[in-house]
Specification:
Length: 114
């Protein structure tokens, strides 16, 4: 019975390919974090999320810095240019993700003050 339900659900979802990909990963992260902040009810929960997001943001910023350092040490050969570009793109993506977490932290800190 469960398998039939799962197959049915997959069949229905396959009819709507754009429904699954209507949000970018960044928008999805923003929405998830917003919902998470809104669902917190205790001070301890808010403080735990604040600590988690702070650490996650720092980790992503540090990784982005590391990737940029790697990119700057790439040789000037044509074959290395693609790798350098990919490293810079990954660093940029990590910075965007860290910014999302930092925006959520601002919202969370405002709710901690209230």
């Amino acid at each position: 019975m469960k398998i039939q339900s799962l197959v049915g659900l997959i069949s229905i979802l396959s009819l709507f390919p754009f429904a699954l990909s209507s949000f970018s990963a960044e928008e999805e992260t923003k929405l998830i974090e917003k919902a998470l902040v809104e669902s917190l009810s205790t001070q301890e929960q808010k403080e735990a999320l604040q600590k988690y997001l702070t650490n996650l943001s720092k980790k992503k910023r540090n990784e982005a810095t590391h990737l940029r350092e790697l990119a700057s040490t790439e040789p000037k050969h044509h074959s290395s240019q693609a790798r350098k570009k990919k490293l810079v793109e990954l660093a940029s993506q990590l910075d965007k993700e860290a910014s999302i977490h930092e925006e959520t932290l601002k919202t969370l800190q405002q709710s901690l003050v209230q």
